[in-house]
Every structure is written in C-alpha cells, then in structure tokens.
Input
Amino acid sequence: MRPEIRKIVIDPEFGNAELPHKIAEGLSLKPEFKTKDELLEEIRHDPGDDLFKTAKKVLFFTENKGRFLKKCPGSKGVVCCNYYTINSVTGCPYDCSYCILQHYIGNNPFITVFMNRERAVEEIVSFLAENRFLRVGTGELADSLALDHLLDESGFFIGELAKRSLFDRVQFEFKTKSAEVERLLEVKKLYPEANIVTGFSVNIPRFSSREEPGTATLEERMNAARRLQRVGVKVAVHFDPVLMLDELFEDYMQLIDFIFSQLDQSKIAWISMGGFRHTLALTETIVGRNPRSLLLRGEMFPSDSDNKLRYLAFIRRRFYTAFNKRISRFFKENPPLYMCMEKAFMWSDMMMPLPEDVFRNNK
Output
C-alpha cells in the first residue's frame, strides 16, 4: 500500500512550480501556499494524535539553500565506505521506531521536497571535475522510492546523468523499504546503460511488522528486487539495524536463507550488515513513542568515540561471523559484504576485505 499524502503545501516563492501542482492534481488535493514557519505553526497548533504521524502526510515544496552532495557523515572512529549522499528530500512517509528523523519533530516534521534539485546535478559535475568516479545515492534522510510515483526522483537523476553522458562515472543507489519500483523499471528501460543499484533494507518479519509500520513486507521487497534484477538493475541488501539478541539469532539465519534463495547472486552489488546503534536521546524517544519496542531489549554500552550505544564487541563479532558464514554459502567466491559503522579493530578481527575493495569490484 502506498503512503497516504493528505496535504500539498508550496513555499510562495515556488508558487508556479509545475511538479507540486501536478502531484496535487493527481491526488485530488488543493495546494496550499505557506512558508515553512507558517506550516510549522499550523501543525504544532493542530498535531492530531501524534505530530510526527500527522506531519508525515504533508509534502512541503521549497528551496534547499545548502549543499546537496555530501559525504556520508558516518561516526567518529569508524571505517568509512566513502559513500556520498544527495538530500533532495528530507523526511519519510514511514514511521520506523529507530528513525533518527524523530529528533527533527520540532523543526521540520513534514516531508520537504527541494525544488532546486538541478543544483545537485551541478554539484555532481563539479565533483567529477576533480574525481574519476562517484558512488552516490539518495535515502539518507528519506526513503528513495516510497514516493517515487509522485516525485520521480529516479527519472530526474538518471535522466540528468544521461544528458551529461555520465553513466560510466556515476553509480547511483536508491535505498528503500518499499516495493515501489514501477517508475525505476521504466527508467532502466529508457536508459539501459545507467549504472543503477537499488538497495533494499531488510529485517526479520517479526521486527519489520512491529518496528517499520507501513513499509513493504519482506516478500514484497524481494519480488521487487527480482523484477529489477531481470531488467539489469543490480540490487544491494542492507541488514540494518540487526538486533543482536540470542532469541532472534535463528530468525536472522532464516532471513539470510530466504533472501539469497530468492535473488540472483551475480546481480547483487553489495551487502551490508550493521548492528543496532543509537544515541541516548533516541532511547528516550523510543520509550516515549514505542515503549514495547524490541529495540529496548538487550544491554548496550556507549562507545568511547561517538557516545552511541552499541552491543558489546564480542556480541557483534558473533553475529557478524555468523552472517558472513551463512551468506557465503550462496556465493562461489567471497560475498560483496561489508560492515556499517564499525571500527578498525572489528574489521581486523573479522579479517574481511575493506569497503573500498567491495565497491571497487562493483563499479
């Protein structure tokens, strides 16, 4: 089921922009014209049962006055995969219990769509003036495809790369918890040479049904992934966040078996795994909004470098080792597997190829 959008709001400076009016017409909504501050005041005044859930049904169209292209922020002291992100949309229609965007409720709770996304393409061109290759994607502060049927992010970015003949220098990833791939299938048909990766975040069904309301089921995501693979789009699989609890260990092993028995291994770009980690402030948010969350089970301790709470190293090592062995059963050679947000000592302990080796083989 597609996310529900109940309101289209346009910054008065972009009152004549075509995209928001087209979306409003398609949804049979009458667009409203307000500044960010006016919209924020309105939602605070009438937040409904939950301000965050109410705001997720609002699309606000305005300008991004900062940079679009940024290096993935990572965390202090961890091994970085040298990934770049484009934040052309901020906010997500889904309400995952672990989402860091919950901290932005006060200042920007709605889904913001930036109308000047052409500048993101200009920033890509500037980057490539000094670098040979760029691995980039949307989805850091939004779901890349959940609203693609409305926003056409895939068509816009791949089309702009085509105009500049950049398919051999840019690999573009769309990360999602949806099964919304119809437009992306059309885009790949239009631009068969495009270097596209679609990254599916996955988790055990018991977790997804409780902690990721509104997202596609695992079966729906895998069906979408197979459709993409059939037309030549490579797929990435992101096991994140992994709840490293003894009671869930076998569930994760079964999840691995199900996923890799469904997919064509030759068309898997990369696989990531990351244990659940979070700030103390997010703990308070989870307690307040999802007091029965599975995320609150198990002991976690703050890291000495970034103060994020993590499972102890020996627990992470046990799960990562098991994931590596289980996933390797489905590959003739070493799987294109890496760890997300882990320090150098964990990479050394695991004796895994570093991220640059994984990505170098998947350009």
Observations:
- The CA atoms of residues 17 and 115 lie 8 Å apart.
